[in-house]
Design brief:
By secondary structure, this protein is an alpha/beta fold. It folds into 3 domains: 224 residues, FAD/NAD(P)-binding domain (3-Layer(bba) Sandwich), CATH 3.50.50; 114 residues, FAD/NAD(P)-binding domain; 104 residues, FAD/NAD-linked reductase, C-terminal dimerisation domain (Enolase-like, domain 1, 2-Layer Sandwich), CATH 3.30.390. α1 runs parallel beside α4 and α1 runs parallel beside α7. The chain is globular, with a radius of gyration of 24 Å. It starts with a strand and ends in a 15-residue tail after the last helix. The model has no long low-confidence stretch (mean pLDDT 97). It is an enzyme of class 1 (oxidoreductase). Its cofactor is FAD. It catalyses: N(6)-[(R)-dihydrolipoyl]-L-lysyl-[protein] + NAD(+) = N(6)-[(R)-lipoyl]-L-lysyl-[protein] + NADH + H(+).
């Protein structure tokens, strides 16, 4: 006899485990199926984000930044040290410890909220049933009034650079290097490629990033992207735009293995040799094997599950969230969708504001934005005003020796409503969240300009950018108003 639930969630990543917890909080009998498991065949929660994505990469980013600071920046503060060394295995072990603490934390939250965690691969069957195949091959069937698909995503593989998990790796393998590669190649100058490239560059790798597109970070405001490229190149990243990788060849044995990369740029065919190569060209929805042919749920040609604005599929009572569906593949976007779906199942009229999804690239300095970019507003023929303020004249940033970057704010010329904010600089991710909150309440640039900000803080740069929108910045020369 199959188990019966009010809600069954397939996947325990940021979209899935959050949906399961919220559903249980709302009084729904909930189960969450997760295929990831440990050596004891016990479910490991958190999905890509906690296990091999957001969290472990940030642990390495912070460790590598502290190392680079000790190597290069302590002397600015008058601090002298002896020779600074990085113990890579210890850094990786610290990362693993943090991951373990957080995944165990999700398990504890399941227990506290009475969510039944089930280890195995889940497959949606006809009639709102879920077939679960455990790590040891056993199967069971679950029934539910509502099913939430949250299986996540996986790295995209490309034929010219087949991953061997040793010399050519994807984003997961790049988190497990036990030594700093002397020469490191990265295919893809997106979020993942730049973050991972930054980690190993700080630790001493000679990093070359291959980007097939001619534009650098096209989703980012052009002015901010241009400044970011200069900063990252100054830090040592060799970013090759318009460089299309056509093939790779691994040679040598053991620790002497190398990989030769063939690529084409505006100057013609070229080759480069590396000790390690990271393939970071994006991610694809993990929908293979998730849906039975007769379950009724539809996918598009790229494998994304088709949903409406409330994440409902074509089958009544079946929803899909996170990386499985349209929109940016971001943990926080998936989590908010999980909450929305759980609450709508419980009868609450909740929705996600997809216009205000914050984006962050955790390089150093960070790059973050919310809302529209200047190029988007031009394309949409929106009349707007611009305000900017550089961190180079922000007292707190100067005191911290973190003065690269700026805040850029965009506001509607007629209503003054804030349309977007783009930041490159220290704590950009946290600063842009201030503006996201303001935008959620339809704030104007004047609203922020009239808000008191404590001094000295990095957030004063946000204040000054808001003042600058109308030429009222106090601590910087005001630019002429855009015609």
């Amino acid at each position: 006899m199959s188990k019966k639930f009010d809600v069954v969630v397939i996947g325990a990543g940021p979209a899935g485990y959050v949906a399961a917890i919220r559903a249980a909080q709302l009084g729904l009998k909930t189960a969450c199926v997760e295929k990831w498991h440990n050596e004891k065949n016990e479910a490991v929660y958190g999905g890509t984000c906690l296990n091999v994505g957001c969290i472990p990469s940030k642990a390495l980013l912070d460790s590598s930044h502290k190392y680079a600071e000790a190597q290069e920046d302590f002397k600015v503060h008058g601090i002298s040290t002896g020779k600074v060394e990085m113990d890579v295995p210890s850094m990786i072990a610290r990362k693993a410890k943090i991951v373990g603490q957080l995944t165990q934390g999700v398990k504890g939250l399941f227990m506290a909220n009475k969510v039944e965690g089930i280890q195995g691969s889940g497959k949606l069957l006809k009639g709102k049933k879920v077939e679960v195949t455990s790590a040891d091959g056993k199967t069971e069937t679950l029934e539910a009034d509502n099913i939430i698909l949250a299986a996540g995503s996986a790295p995209i593989d490309i034929p010219p650079a087949p991953v061997d998990d040793e010399t050519i790796v994807n984003s997961t393998g790049a988190l497990e290097f036990q030594a700093v590669p002397k020469r490191l190649g990265v295919i893809g100058a997106g979020v993942i490629g730049l973050e991972l490239g930054s980690v190993w560059s700080r630790l001493g790798s000679e990093v070359t990033v291959f980007e097939a597109m001619d534009a650098f970070l096209p989703a980012v405001d052009e002015q901010v992207a241009k400044d970011a490229k200069k900063v990252l190149e100054k830090q040592g990243l060799d970013i090759k735009l318009g460089a299309k990788v056509s093939g790779t060849k691994v040679a040598g044995k053991g620790k002497s293995k190398t990989v030769k990369v063939s690529y084409t740029d505006s100057e013609g065919d070229k080759e480069a040799t590396f000790d390690k190569l990271i393939v970071a060209v994006g991610r694809r929805p993990y929908s293979e094997g998730l849906l039975a042919d007769d379950c009724g749920v539809e996918k598009d040609e790229r494998g994304f599950v088709k949903v409406d604005e409330y994440c409902a599929t074509s089958v009544d009572g079946v929803y899909a969230t996170g990386d499985l569906v349209r929109g940016p593949m971001l943990a926080h976007k998936g989590s908010e969708e999980g909450v929305m779906v759980a609450e709508r199942i419980a009868g609450k009229a909740t929705q996600v504001n997809y216009d205000l999804v914050p984006f962050v690239i955790y390089t150093h300095p960070e790059i973050a934005w919310v809302g529209k970019s200047e190029q988007q507003l031009k394309e949409e023929d929106v009349d707007y005003n611009v305000g900017t303020f550089p961190f180079s004249i922000n007292g707190r940033a100067m005191a911290a020796n973190e003065s690269a970057g700026m805040v850029k704010m965009l506001a509607d010329a007629k209503t003054d409503r804030i349309l977007g904010c783009h930041i490159m600089g220290p704590s950009a991710a946290d600063l842009v969240q201030q503006v996201a909150i303001a935008m959620e309440f339809s704030a104007s640039a004047e609203d922020l300009a009239l808000t008191m900000f404590s001094h000295p803080t990095l957030s004063e740069a946000v204040h000054e950018a808001a003042l600058s929108v109308h030429g009222h910045a106090i601590h910087a020369a005001n630019r002429k108003k855009r015609k």
